[in-house]
Structures are given as structure tokens and as C-alpha cells.
Design a protein that fits this description.
The complex is a heterodimer of chains A (508) and B (257).
Chain A lengths: L2 H25 L6 H23 L11 H31 L4 H5 L5 H35 L5 H60 L5 H4 L2 H6 L9 H6 L3 H36 L17 H14 L2 H27 L7 H22 L4 H5 L5 H30 L1 H24 L11 H5 L1 H23 L4 H18 L5
Chain B lengths: L14 E9 L3 E10 L4 E5 L6 H9 L6 E6 L2 E2 L4 H6 L1 E4 L11 H11 L4 H14 L15 H13 L5 E5 L7 H16 L3 E5 L3 H7 L2 E6 L2 E6 L1 H8 L6 H15 L1
Parallel strand pairs in B: 3-8, 3-9, 6-7, 7-8
Antiparallel strand pairs in B: 1-2, 1-4, 4-5, 9-10
Chain lengths: 508, 257
């Protein structure tokens, strides 16, 4: 097989893997759902045009040349998209290093590894770009319909920033490998992937709160201070924004730059990719030291289960990154709370839905880890205690963990407004219980390391969990601002839960 | 090793299975009758897909039979699974342990689940891990362990609560010669101490050497059972190895099917 033939063959193989992975994500890994997944995707894409219209509809007929404030907003939005793509690309790269089962086969085959890994890097870039194109289509559609075909060039910007995000992800991951070793890279990369996109939005919110006392990040972007600090209109910084509006002079260098950057990264890092993959697979199972020796602790069987769950949660890198992200989301409302002590702003009410939603989402993840993510399922199933006791112990762990994380916020709120603290606490309990119940109804036995299956095992459970958290967050907010409307959203959310329960698979 | 010996009262049989049936896409276990005496080492052998693992999973309470009964030391395992499980331990061919726990932490968890007094289980766990050659790794998390080491940890977990009946599904898969000898020695010691061991294996030499009685299962049914001498006698081959006997029995069964 010639080098070119081998490359083409391997590229086809990578594309097939990427397609099947994506299909499995869409269909929950079940055969015969292809048509349903395609129809569902088309319906979701159509529905997504409505929020897209609400968000970007008013920008469709922006006149050129753009003023500085508009350039800042568009550039910040593009940067946010880039940060999210970078986050996805870092996740893809670490998955290639740590989770792909074919590395041994590839590295033992008589092909040039640099070529093979060039294709794999390109495949990462392609999957990042494809996903970004898919998500951005409703927004670009709205802009094209409202502002003309010049907005088609936004797709070019998506491709260009996708190329640079993939290149940056490769560099970041391999540099981390060199600096902190393969073991820590996995954890740090997971944390980076989880927090990069959110970090940018949160930083803007913090700036907005500190300067203007509001959660709106646009306040900072459209402020005079930002305009004064921003570079000249002719600056290279605005090229992505100008390219998105159809400026071909900005678009061409942007696309060329992206391609050159990815090409350079491929040339530089493809030969090292193999070394990195080898050291990752050799060190993916480190001999880390546990706690100091001590006697066995006494307690009931349920206590033994709870202790085990707490130890595993504490040592779970995914959970650490996820919790960190949830806590990061809580920083802006916490800041707002702190400021509101001084000026008794009504904006403090915004804290409640944010906290309730964060609690629901975190409880969903924790429940999956404790209820479905059981690494020694046979052991627990053959233990001499009824299954209901096992489930109860695991649920208790989730609720205790949620309590420990959110209790400080409730205590702080108690000083500002006892009523709001009570409403928030009730909201947290209901949202957490709902998310836990959904995970219980849809539990699918899996290993903790297969956390991605949480999203793929049931679309319905994923959406139900998200909408339940949103529903309870809205109910809590309305209970504080418009109490008469709170029962309506509360009943709607309860109805959603009832429908989810009805649709959940029958359990033994 | 000074592990507690909780078994004492004489029982007629450690395991009594009657009419056990399980159907997936096809019939996996077909009205199986099986009796294992207390204190014996019983090997269940059979070709791939014969129903060995399915049978033992039903006995261990991991899967519910479609029909039939399972009694462990006289306790109906289907109506009182908790009492039956208290006396049993299950070890599968794919050791399922927690990557983020150390072997000691894992054994502490297992002992806690079976409600063993920590004063007893602590030293017992330590002795077990040392006897299995895991002393240098007591404080390392299991995520770095080879399959053999993981299998040893799982086995130590099965023994730490001193079960009266140990059920092992291909426990020697993936073990090197030294580890396999360790495990075999440990199981024989347990049987000598009065414990009952039921083991599935594809390594017929192990069954031949270790088992008091051997059951041959094919197409979900027990086609032959007895000591090696009895099996030879039943089939009229006095000098054949278990391997030849096994092939002859399985071929007869396949031809009959």
C-alpha cells in the first residue's frame, strides 16, 4: 500500500468512526432509531431558529462599516464560540490519547505513524468544525434571511476558528503532557475543557457586576470604557467580525491562517503524537497512593456503601471538573449577593434560579455517578442487603453532597433575605430530588469512566433533567417575584416529571 | 491466616438447584438439576455458551431464573436472597473492582457490606492480601493494576467475609502461572477448612486435579457428573483424560441435539 493510499484508507476509517460515534450519541446506541434521530434533529434545528431569531435577529441588518461597540460584541461572541470549540477539541484530544482502544493496533502496524496521526488530528478538527457548523446553522440562517447572503461568510469564520481551536487544543494538550506528565494532564485537560467556555462568560459577568451591578455581560462589551480600551477599527483583531459580515479581505487571510496553523501543528506534533499516546497508555493506570493505613471502620452496611461512594466521588476527576464549573457559575451571583448587602438591589433575586438550576444539574451528574456508574455492580448485587437499601444509600450520598456544596450559599442568603433563603433551599431540594429521580428511572449500568454514556443512553432523560432544573429554577424565581405565577410553572414542571416517569423503561 | 470460621452446622448440601431454567433469545439453561455437597470442590465444565455462567449468576442472585428453585445451605435463595447472599461470595472472570480504591479500602468496603466486625476483618484482609502477594501494593489505587492483580484483589474481597460457599466463574483467566498457583492453593485451603467451592473453568487440567466432583454441562443441561473415576466408568474409558472424556460427552450431546 502506498503512503497516499494508506492515508486515504485511514482517513475513511476515521470518518466512519466519527460518524458512528455521532450516530450512537444521537440514537442512544440503539439500532433502528436512525430515522427517528434524523427527524428529531431536523425538528430541533427548525425549533432552534426561534431562539436564534431572538438572539441575533436584531443584528441581521447591521450596516457596514461597523462601529467599535458592535465590533466588540461580535468579536466577543466569536471568541466565545472559539473557546467552546477549544473546549470540545481538548476533550477530543484527551479521548484519543486515553480512551481509544485502537492505539495498540495502529502503533503496531507497518504504517508511518506521523502520517496516521496527521489524519487523526485532521479528524479532530473536522469533527469540531462539523459540530460547530451544525450548532451555528440556525443563527446564520436567521442572519442570512434578515440581512442577506453576505452573512453566509459566517460559515467561513466558523471553519477558520474551528481549525485554530483544534490546533490550539493539540498544542495545549501536548504542552501539558510535557510539563505535568500524562497522569495529571488527563485531570487538568478535563477541567480546562469544562471551564474554558464558561470561564469567558463568567469573567464578563464578574466585570459587569463589579462595574455596573448587573449580570448582563453585554453591559461591559458595549460600555464606553471597553470602546476606549479596544484597538483601532483597522486592527487585525476585528478581522473575524468583519469576515463574518462578508468582508472577503478579512475572510481569506483568516481561513488561510487557520489552515496554515493546523498544518504547522500537524507537521510539528504528529511525530510526537505517537510518543505522547504511548506514554499516556503506559501511564493511564498510575500507582497512586491511597490514604494512610488504619484499622477498618465499624458501621452498618449502608454506612459502608455511603463511605465508599464519598471516597469515589472525592477521587473522581470528572466530578471535580464538573463541580468546579458549577461553582464557577455561582461566582457571579455570589458577587451580586455580596454587592447587594451594600445597596439592597433587587437583582439579588437572580441568585435563586441560578443556584436552583446549578443544584439540579449537579445532582443529575452525581446521581449518574452513584446510581448508574457502579464499577463493581456484581459485588454490590451479591451483597447481603436488599437492592432498595443500596439505592437509598446512594441517593443519600447525592443529597448530602448537594447539601454540603449549597449550604454556605443558603446561610449567606439567610442574612440578606430569610424568605429568599427558604425558597432557594426548597428549590434546591426539589430540583435535586427531581434530577435524582430521573437518573433512577433511566438508570443504565455502566462504569464510571463511561460517563459519556450518561448523555447517550437516553436523550429523553437528558432533556427531562435539563428542563426539570430550568422549570424548578423558574418556579423559585417566580415564587419570589410573582408568587401567583409560581404554581403554574411548578405544576408544569411536575407534569413534565410525571410524563418522564411514564415514558421511563420498566424496571425489574 | 486467622480468619474466622463461621461455618459449622452440618448441612446436607451447600447448593441444591432444581429445574432451573433461563431463556434469553434461546434457551440458555434447560431445567437444570444440580446438587453440590457441603465442603466439596465442584468444577463445572462445558463448551462456550453451554450455560455455565448463566447458571452460576442465577445462583449468586445476579439474574432471576424463569423457573426452578435455588437453595443455599437449605435457604431458598429466590425467596430470601439476603440470607443466602450472606453465606456466598461471587468472583467473575472479569474482576470488577473500584479503580479509585486501594486493595485495603476495597476489602474494608466488602467487609462492611457483609457486616463483618472490623476487628476481625481488618487483620484478615491484611493477611489475605499478603498471602496473595499484594503486600507491595496495599496502598496503591487499583487503577494501576494488571488483570492478574485485579483478580487477586477481587478474590481477596470474596474471601474477606469468610463465605461458606464460594462461586467462581473462570477465576484463573488472565493469571500468570505463579498467581494461578497462589489462587489454587488458597481455594484448596478454603475447602480443607470446610468451605464449599464451585468453579467454572475451561482449563480441564485444573478441574481434573482440584475438583472433588466434576459436572459437565452442555446446551443448558447437566450431561454427566461425578468424580473423574466415576465419569470414566460411566463412559467406559478407564484410562482417558478428562479432556478426551469431555470431548466425547460434548460430541454425543451435540449429535443428539
Amino acid at each position: 500500500m502506498t503512503s497516499a493510499t494508506a492515508l486515504t484508507w485511514f482517513a475513511r476509517h476515521e470518518l466512519r468512526l466519527a460518524w458512528r460515534e455521532w450516530l450512537a450519541m444521537m440514537t442512544g446506541g440503539r439500532r433502528g432509531r436512525k430515522r427517528g434521530a434524523v427527524i428529531g434533529l431536523i425538528v430541533i434545528a427548525a425549533i432552534m431558529h426561534l431562539p436564534a431569531y431572538a438572539v441575533v435577529g436584531r443584528f441581521a441588518d447591521l450596516p457596514a462599516p461597523l462601529d467599535k461597540s458592535t465590533l466588540i460584541v461580535i468579536t466577543a461572541t466569536i471568541f466565545l464560540a472559539w473557546a467552546l470549540m477549544l473546549s470540545q477539541a481538548i476533550e477530543s484530544v484527551t479521548r484519543v490519547f486515553y480512551a481509544r482502544a485502537d492505539l495498540d493496533l495502529i502503533m503496531s502496524s507497518p504504517v508511518r505513524l506521523a502520517d496516521v496521526f496527521s489524519v487523526r488530528i485532521a479528524a479532530i478538527a473536522l469533527s469540531v468544525i462539523a459540530m460547530a457548523l451544525l450548532l451555528s446553522t440556525p443563527f446564520v440562517d436567521v442572519l442570512v434571511i434578515g440581512g442577506g447572503i453576505r452573512w453566509f461568510s459566517a460559515y467561513g469564520v466558523v471553519i477558520a476558528i474551528g481549525l485554530t481551536a483544534a490546533a490550539a487544543a493539540i498544542v495545549v494538550t501536548i504542552v501539558l503532557f510535557r510539563l505535568i506528565g500524562p497522569n495529571r494532564t488527563r485531570l487538568v485537560a478535563q477541567i480546562l475543557a469544562a471551564t474554558i467556555g464558561a470561564g469567558f462568560v463568567i469573567a464578563l459577568q464578574i466585570a459587569a457586576i463589579m462595574s455596573y451591578g448587573t449580570l448582563s455581560r453585554f453591559t461591559v462589551l458595549t460600555s464606553d470604557a471597553a470602546a476606549a480600551f479596544a484597538p483601532d477599527i483597522e486592527s487585525i483583531v476585528w478581522w473575524p467580525a468583519r469576515a463574518a459580515l462578508g468582508d472577503s479581505e478579512a475572510m481569506l487571510p483568516l481561513l488561510a491562517g487557520g489552515l496554515i496553523l493546523l498544518g504547522a501543528v500537524m507537521a510539528m506534533f504528529s511525530p510526537r503524537f505517537a510518543d505522547t499516546a504511548i506514554s499516556a497508555s503506559a501511564n493511564a493506570t498510575p500507582g497512586r497512593q491511597g490514604s494512610r493505613p488504619r484499622g477498618f471502620r465499624a458501621g452498618s452496611r449502608q454506612q459502608a456503601l455511603r463511605r465508599k461512594e464519598f471516597v469515589l466521588l472525592r477521587r473522581d476527576p470528572w466530578l471535580i471538573s464538573r463541580t468546579l464549573m458549577q461553582l464557577l457559575y455561582l461566582v457571579p451571583p455570589a458577587l451580586l449577593l455580596w454587592r447587594s448587602f451594600a445597596d439592597s438591589s433587587l437583582a439579588i433575586v437572580l441568585i435563586t434560579p441560578v443556584i436552583v438550576m446549578a443544584a439540579g444539574q449537579l445532582a443529575g451528574g452525581l446521581s449518574w455517578l452513584t446510581i448508574s456508574g457502579e464499577d463493581a455492580a456484581d459485588l454490590v448485587a451479591t451483597a447481603p442487603l436488599p437492592p432498595s437499601h443500596v439505592t437509598r444509600a446512594k441517593i443519600e450520598v447525592v443529597l448530602i453532597a448537594i447539601g454540603v456544596i449549597f449550604a454556605p450559599m443558603i446561610i449567606a442568603l439567610l442574612f440578606a433575605s430569610p424568605l429568599q433563603a427558604a425558597v432557594t433551599a426548597v428549590g434546591i431540594i426539589i430540583a435535586s430530588a427531581s434530577a435524582t429521580a430521573i437518573q433512577l428511572w433511566f438508570r443504565v449500568q455502566a462504569r464510571r469512566s463511561q460517563f459519556r454514556r450518561r448523555q447517550t443512553s437516553s436523550r429523553l432523560a437528558t432533556f427531562a433533567e435539563a428542563f426539570s432544573s430550568i422549570g424548578w429554577a423558574a418556579t423559585a424565581a417566580l415564587a419570589l417575584t410573582l408568587p401567583i405565577a409560581a404554581p403554574i410553572t411548578g405544576l408544569m414542571t411536575a407534569g413534565l416529571l410525571a410524563a418522564t416517569w411514564k415514558l421511563s423503561p420498566r424496571r425489574e | 491466616m486467622d480468619c474466622p470460621d463461621i461455618m459449622k452446622p452440618e448441612q446436607p448440601s451447600a447448593l441444591q438447584v432444581r429445574g432451573l431454567t433461563k431463556r434469553f433469545d434461546r434457551l440458555a439453561v434447560d431445567a437444570l438439576d444440580l446438587t453440590v455437597r457441603s465442603g466439596e470442590f465442584y468444577a463445572l465444565v462445558g463448551p462456550n455458551g453451554a450455560g455455565k455462567t448463566t447458571t452460576l449468576r442465577m445462583v449468586a442472585g445476579l439474574s432471576r431464573p424463569d423457573a426452578g428453585s435455588v437453595a443455599v445451605f437449605g435457604i431458598d435463595a429466590l425467596s430470601d436472597p439476603v440470607a443466602a447472599k450472606q453465606m456466598m461470595a461471587w468472583v467473575s472472570d472479569e474482576p470488577m473492582i473500584y479503580d479509585k480504591l486501594t486493595p485495603v479500602e476495597y476489602l474494608e468496603f466488602v467487609a462492611g457490606l457483609w457486616g463483618v466486625d472490623p476487628v476481625v476483618s481488618g487483620p484478615c484482609a491484611h493477611d489475605l492480601l499478603i498471602s496473595l502477594g499484594l503486600e507491595p501494593h496495599l496502598r496503591e489505587r487499583c487503577e494501576g493494576f494488571s488483570k492478574g492483580m485485579r483478580q487477586k484483589v477481587a478474590l481477596a474481597g470474596a474471601l474477606v467475609h469468610d463465605p461458606r460457599l464460594i462461586i467462581l466463574d473462570e477465576p484463573l483467566t488472565g493469571l500468570d502461572a505463579v498467581s494461578a498457583r497462589h489462587v489454587k492453593g488458597l481455594l484448596v485451603d478454603r475447602v480443607r477448612a470446610g468451605c464449599t467451592v464451585i468453579m467454572t473453568t475451561h482449563i480441564l487440567e485444573v478441574a481434573e486435579r482440584m475438583a472433588d466432583r466434576i459436572g459437565v454441562i452442555a446446551a443448558g443441561r447437566l450431561v454427566a457428573e461425578g468424580t473423574l473415576a466415576e465419569l470414566r466408568q460411566q463412559n467406559g474409558h478407564n484410562d482417558t483424560s478428562l479432556e478426551d472424556l469431555f470431548i466425547a460427552l460434548v460430541n454425543v450431546e451435540a449429535a443428539a441435539a
